Amino acid sequence: DFQQPMDDLIVSEKSTSECATCNYRARQFGIKKGMFLGRARQLCPDLVVLQYDFAGYEEVSEQVLSILHRIAAEYHGCVEPVSC
Fold first, then answer.
1. CA nearest 36: which of 55, 13, 4?
2. Which carries the bigger pLDDT value, residue 75 or residue 52?
3. Residue 12 to residue 38: CA distance in whole angstroms
4. What average pLDDT does this structure show over 25-51?
5. Is 71 helix (H, G, I), strand (E, B) or coil?
6. Rounded to whole angstroms, how far apart are CA atoms 26 and 44?
7. 19 with 40: CB under 8 angstroms?
8. How many Cβ atoms sit within 10 Å of the Cβ of residue 59?
9. What is the mean pLDDT of the segment spanning 32-43?
10. Mean pLDDT of 37-58
11. Tell me, what's the pLDDT at 74?
């Protein structure tokens, strides 16, 4: 599913929200992950920003963790999830 870009009013040049990732085209403008979106917008006024899909991320994360637990149990190991 394609996500609709965020409303331009939400991502102003004063935004302190952070860029989670960016594609190669955005990198050509000097945009980097972790950069404030306000600064990214200054570097690339036509920047397209997509919202996070928290529900989708959580769903896939739980699936991956379940697979890892199953494999660890087969080999008498354990899985210790950590957050970065």
1. 13
2. 75
3. 6
4. 91
5. helix
6. 8
7. yes
8. 10
9. 92
10. 88
11. 93
